[in-house]
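Objective 1.3, modelling of assemblies. Example input:
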Amino acid sequence: EDKVVQSPLSLVVHEGDTVTLNCSYEVTNFRSLLWYKQEKKAPTFLFMLTSSGIEKKSGRLSSILDKKELFSILNITATQTGDSAIYLCTLSNFGNEKLTFGTGTRLTIIP
Amino acid sequence: DSGVTQTPKHLITATGQRVTLRCSPRSGDLSVYWYQQSLDQGLQFLIHYYNGEERAKGNILERFSAQQFPDLHSELNLSSLELGDSALYFCASSVGQGMDIQYFGAGTRLSVL
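Predicted structure (tokens):
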């Protein structure tokens, strides 16, 4: 069965710090890995990764995938209080039309 | 705003009852997905519909059912409700059926008393 493990489960840092969130996975017929940010309610899309070694970047957030070692990281630099949220890693595979979500990393930024 | 509309926002009901949650996908999206998120738990995939047809089932209980109508809106029916069914229920939509980027609605918070 497909599996997504995120670490740490919870992280508290000060504003301005840089954080790295981890996602490791086991999947057959990998299709893509996606990162979502969940604040109070609905998860919002951040990145979709399909190829190893290609960094995706959006402002202070970036993410990279390693398909050989089966993990992805999400980096946030110069954190702000608005980055406080749960970050969800999810993956999809060919032939099984559902997303498998990790339990998320709860990130808290202290002013 | 993701463009996915879920109603109602909140629902309070009693054990044994039946409720219907509604989802309107983004304009142009043919796929609808339903998820359950309990306290301190991750998102659990329930079911996926594409253009009116069921495409995949996840951890959906037999007491739960869903359908997608010709206008592409979807309903999730929960019956014989138990206390443990209290959760946030999300609907998401995407353009195709290939598990591309999903856009989530704001969710329906169900409280079973």
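Chain B touches chain A at residues 2, 4, 33, 35, 41-45, 48, 50, 55-56, 58, 88, 90, 97-107 (CB under 8 Å).
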